[in-house]
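#help-structures

NK: newbie question. if I give both the sequence and a SMILES, will the prediction place the ligand too? trying with LLZGTKA7
OV: yes, paste both and it writes out the complex. here, I ran yours:
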Amino acid sequence: MNDSFGARLRAMLDDRGPLCVGIDPSPALLTAWGLDDSPAGLERFSRTVVENVADVVAAVKPQSAFFERWGSRGIAVLERTIADLREAGTLVLLDVKRGDIDSTMAAYAEAYLDRGSPLAADAVTLSPYLGFGSLEGAITSAVANDAGVFVLARTSNPEAAGLQQLVAGQVLAGATAANAGHSPFGPVGLVMGATLPELEDSLTDLNGPILAPGLGAQGATPADVARLFGPVRHAVLPSVSRDVLADPKRVRSRTLFYRDECAAHLSGVAAPS
Ligand SMILES: O=c1ccn([C@@H]2O[C@H](COP(=O)(O)O)[C@@H](O)[C@H]2O)c(=O)[nH]1
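OV: that's the protein plus ligand as structure tokens.
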């Protein structure tokens, strides 16, 4: 029997430390790297990130949108990037933010969670906007494939607050119920921005991982992550993209900086700032 996603993520967090690096080949970053905004540019960019970070971080998060811009040629690069990351031995969190009615969710689950799919990831991001229950089939599929899902709860962008504050409690309740009885983590993580001023709900019963984007370009620091998540800091996976991707020559050093700072703050070794 294979290890569950929760067990693999726990092992990676303990072994490598708490950091996820994004692969976000935006037009601006491709230009900054001196690459063409083309599928070939995407491929060069993604390969460079994989080579520099895949052996030192717990997880890597390709942002699907930047690959989808190029249609089937971009998706082909995404498939190769996922394969390269898996081969390199890091966890792949595919940021696709999918959410739909149950029959359509089944197709998304087949695309992103079925072991045999060329786009299969260790975990994907899902949107609960059609109701937490609409994600049940995808969660079942994740468990069957030893994969996981991260459901948007309180995202890092400030304009989300008004809408998400109305429903985050339901998302937390659904995730907590789905994770009951699993160890060390259940299959359902939450996306909670590292930029949030405070947590509106206690996460101590979640029994699942927390993906926390927003480090760097969106203003959050490792100290903010530790302060925000306090009692559940052991379950947090902070994520950073643009700030480590700004200069191809510094991708590895910036990654190691963020990884070590997050580890120090989340373990309580670093002095709070
Ligand atoms: O709440 C969320 C959920 C996802 N994201 C995604 O993460 C990266 C962040 O990039 P940075 O360059 O580190 O700001 C990007 O792909 C977002 O789509 C998020 O920012 N917030």
